[in-house]
Structures are given as C-alpha cells and as structure tokens.
Design a protein that fits this description.
2 copies of one chain form a homodimer. Chain A is an alpha+beta fold. The first copy, chain A, contains 6 helices and 15 strands. The longest helix of chain A is centred in the last third of the chain and has 22 residues. The interface between A and B is large, with 95 and 95 residues.
Chain lengths: 332, 332
C-alpha cells in the first residue's frame, strides 16, 4: 500500500509509492515500457491496459475495443490505490496516512503520431469534457480533497510513453503550492475584496507586455515572476474558482487558445518537452470562491540547478516580456 | 542588471538574470564552457577567472597564482550583481527590486580529478572554514538577508564544469522554502518550547530506522517524508541556528560525516549526480534562534514528473527506511 507522509517542519505531504519501487540498481534507468513494440494506448491493444473508465465513441462500439476517439483508463502503475480507508496515524512526531487516491490516464487520440497541438480543436475540447466527467464522478468520493490534472510531454518532462496522454490524480490532501495559492488569493480578497487573478488579468490586458494571446474566453500570459523561461499561464477571463463548473463556451475557448499557445511554443522553441498543470479549487468542502482556476505550462528548456529544488528559489535567464514578445510572433 | 521579481499570489521571489540570457535558439543547449580544453579551475589557469576573494595556500604564494589548496572566486557568470542599491519598486500590483547579491565559487581542490568524497577530511573541513570566512565578510553588507551555499555535482544536477566546486549566493531576500522552514520551526517552538529539529534528532536516534550514520557531532538520516529517493539530511546533534557560528569541532565532525555519507551514496548508487544545499538561519536581523542549520543531499536518480514542480507535491518510489538500510550497509 502506498503511503502519504507529512514533513513535520513545512507540512508538505509526499507519496511514498513503493509498488512502483525500485532497488538501488534500478536507478537511474527510466521505468520499463509496458510492452516492447506494441503501444498499449493504440487501438487494438486495449487488452494491455486496465478496463476503461470512460471513452468517447463516434459510433457505437463495445468497451475496451477499438472505435474510440478518446479513452480514460486507470493508470497501470498507479502512485495511489483506490481501495481502503484514510488510516491516519501518528508515528511519534510524524504523521502518515494510507496512499489512497485515483490515478488515471486520458489517451487524447487513437492516433499514435499526433500531438495535442496538432489535433482539431474539437478533440482538445473533448479532453476537457472527459476530465469534467471524471471530476464529477470522483467528487462523490468524500475521501478526496484535490484532483490534479497534468500532462508530461516528452521524456525529459517525465513522460514514459510517447502516445499523447494526460493524467489525473485524485488526492486525500491538497498539494502544498495550491495551499499557498489559496492562501494568497484569500489574503488579497480579505484586503481588497477582489480576486487576485482577476486583478492580474486586468493589469496584463492593460499593459499587454506579457500577453501571448487571447480570445473571448481566455487570456494567455507569461507571468510577471516566472520560475522557468517561457512559462505561460492560461486563465479564464471571467472569475471562476472551479474547473469542473466550466460550460461548453469555456471549453470551446480553452481548446482553441491552448492549441494556439502550444503551436506558438513549438514554432518559437522547436517542440520542447513541457509540463502542463491544471490549478483549481479543492473539492469536498475545502474549496474557496476567492480562487481562480487556470492552467500553467512550463517548457523544459533548462536543467534545474539543484538549489532550486532545495530552496524553492529560481533563477530564470529570460524576461517574461521577451518571452511573450517571441511567443506573440513566432514563425508559425 | 538582473532583477528580483515577486509572484503576487504566493510571494515567491525569482531572479530574472538576462545577462546569462539566451535567445530561443540557444535553448536547450547547456551554457557554453568557459574555454575549450583548459579548465579555468585548474592551477596555472587562474587568469581565466575573476580575481580570487580568498585562497588557502599551504606555503606563501601570490594571489591568482598556483600554490593554493582551495580558492574562492566571484562567479564569472553571476546570477546577481554586487553593485547597486535595492531599488525596490512597485509595478502596478507587482513588486520588484534590483538583482543585487554576491555569487561566488569555491574550488574545492587544485586536483581536477578528485571528487569531494575522495578528498582527505582536512580538505573538506577547509571548505567549511572558507565558507565561514565568506559568511562573516558578506554579513557586513546590510543589503543581504540570506546566504545560500550549495553544490551541483554532475551535469544532470546542473554543474557546468566538472572540476569539483561549490557555490555561494548572497541574497537580499530569504528563499521561500527557508521561510516555510523558519515558520514551521517557530510554530513548533511556540507550542512545545523545543526545537523541532532537536525533537526530530531525538526520535531518529531512538528508533534508528532512518539513521544512515553518525559521529560525536553530526547525525545523518533519510528524512521521514523525503521528496526524492535516497534524500539525506546531515544535522548537527546540538542545537545550532547558524552555520557561521560553528567551531572547529563542528567542522571536524561535519567533514568526516559528509565524506562518509558521500562515499555511501557512491557505493550504494554508483556515483549519481547530486545536489547538496546548506539550510541556515537568515542573516542581518531576520534570524531565528528556533531554527537549526543542516545540510540536505539529494541524489538525482529520477526525472521529476512535471506536476511536481507545478504543485510542490512529490512521488517518491523508495521508502526512507529502505534507503537508510541500503546506505547503512553499502558495498564500501
């Protein structure tokens, strides 16, 4: 059973997931591919994955069989286990609980050779609809506090299979940085009675120096104090604490702007590995209406010097104003 | 001039250091070596570096010339600049200041082919004495709030030159994770009237499950909730808020235990890249006697999946109890 353990000094929870575990000699090789040659995410290979949780099928076809345009499955090597109680216990001064949670994979397309930015906007929109469906389902489980959606694109960004996919992890805790964001948004709201992300959107739309692109529903900016070169945030223009309350208009505009932004990254930076993380309000009682959901995209262009992980302090060699200017006019 | 910029939501400062800057086409290649062939850190090549700030010379010899056993120089490509005022200004809702600070390099040995764990304990001890001297000097500058000492070992850990060296950065702010640690230590002290690190040492010495090694002055443990496999902390056994107040006994024991622990990592894990970060109390008025300085060592064995940077939430495939058992009995 995986464990969740809490650092007593900074209150940071980590997953210790020994079932994906490795002996010392197994480091630093990448995790083994599920199968040599055959891609478990390709149509016809459905039996290589756990049973699907959700699939979109343009024409009726049976589950776990070809014919789907998008497919959500449990992760075959989950970091957390779905069965079991919380099992919160103390261990002297320390705290731990069972590593319960859901770990799912969304296969974005049946086509092995297409990347997210190459898909039609409708197919990108479908990914967000599917995640919304999974949110609604997982929120019924009162053990969960946060649902994390992310994409690792490229091996250097942590992807172990190349077929385009995103991941979802439902957690019984709220990740540390999300807690910090919630606290910051709450602090700003208590002082100003305004959402800090709405204020940020207003300032960015005013001076436009860090704006990358926009449409009727979303704004894409390089943030003022980015940790990474060409870091980019996509924010809904209207205040919205919770991703899963988004409507069709929202997903339509998100899909179009996300495709546009990923194409800009490809054109400006030559298809680098990247990570995409959805930040949204916690679920099941710990949500906060002062928060504003958004997406953060971090191209993987530099090696992190070690002190950055050790201190939370980052050195970024590119001004966000320069990054935004480059991304506004890449060779598309 | 580099800039320090603050994220308004989570109050995280980042350095934007465009003078080390790169155009999009320069990514993701590593920074250029200072010189092809010749190592700027080797004796005889002193003219390839800025003038030395400090050097230990067993026999009298002139500065910036061979004969040294250890040498501290300004970083030729500093992330921060030593000259200038704070220049704190607002920019609408945002905050920034001049990127002032010191960025120094400590060359651990004149021998190009020796690693820190292969050096005699006396030479390792000398590194800590040199850093203490630099601390005392830099603390006189009232602009600085924190002095960060770290080592990137191996290219994957961010080292751009292979000749063994450590780095020092003096900052006008306190890094985010150090702030979190200070707050956690203060919270524990306010409640228990004890240092949380002293409590941690007592518990670890009691059950010994996560103890890697110890001597009269220092304890080395795999922490209870490690972010990374084989993460290891070295803590002075007696309460000590500030690294720079260490005496000869402390450095003697630190040098011996550090050498021992690095040799264990080499034996157990096959000389992986690693990062070492010294955590100590802030300087110039923001220090806190409830803190306890220590060293964190993070072998680089896994790729960070992207969501870990985006959330501060980590998945670790190795139990610290298993890591400690392996490190206690590696093939030495």
């Amino acid at each position: 059973m995986p464990e969740l353990r809490k650092d007593p000094i900074v209150n940071r929870w980590v997953i210790i997931s020994t079932e994906r575990g490795r002996r010392p000699k197994d480091y630093p090789s990448p995790p083994p591919k599920t199968n040599q040659g055959a891609c478990p995410f390709c149509p016809g290979n459905e039996s290589m994955t756990p049973h699907e949780l959700l699939a979109y099928r343009p024409n009726p076809s049976p589950p776990d069989a070809p014919g789907w345009s998008l497919r959500v499955i449990p992760n075959k090597f989950p970091a957390l286990k779905i069965e079991g109680g919380m099992g919160r216990v103390g261990d002297g001064m320390y705290d731990r609980m069972n590593g319960i949670g859901a770990h799912e994979v969304l296969i974005e397309s049946p086509n092995h050779n297409v990347e997210l930015d190459e898909m039609p906007p409708e197919a990108i929109e479908a990914c967000w609809w599917a995640f919304k469906q999974r949110f609604v389902d997982l929120k019924k489980d009162s053990r969960f506090r946060y649902i994390l959606i992310f994409k690792n694109h490229g091996e250097a960004a942590g992807a172990s299979l190349e077929h385009a996919h995103m991941q979802l992890i439902a957690l019984p805790i709220v990740p540390e940085l999300v807690c910090d964001e919630l606290a910051g948004a709450r602090r700003h709201y208590d002082y100003k009675e305004r959402c800090i992300f709405c204020d940020l959107i207003a300032q960015e739309l005013g001076d436009r120096k860090r704006v990358v692109a926009e449409n009727a529903g979303f704004l894409s900016v390089c943030p003022y104090a980015p940790r990474f070169p060409y870091e980019m945030w996509l924010l809904p223009k209207n205040h919205a604490p919770r991703f899963e309350e988004s409507d069709g208009d929202t997903f339509y505009h998100l899909a179009h702007l996300l495709k546009d932004c990923l194409k800009r990254i490809r054109a400006a930076l030559g298809a680098p590995p990247y990570n995409l993380v959805l930040h949204t309000s916690p679920i099941n009682g710990k949500g906060d209406d002062t928060y504003h959901w958004h997406i953060e995209i971090m191209p993987k262009l530099t090696k992190l010097a070690g002190f950055e992980q050790g201190t939370g302090f980052y050195i970024n060699p590119t001004l966000p104003e320069d990054a935004a200017a480059t991304l506004r006019s890449p060779v598309l």
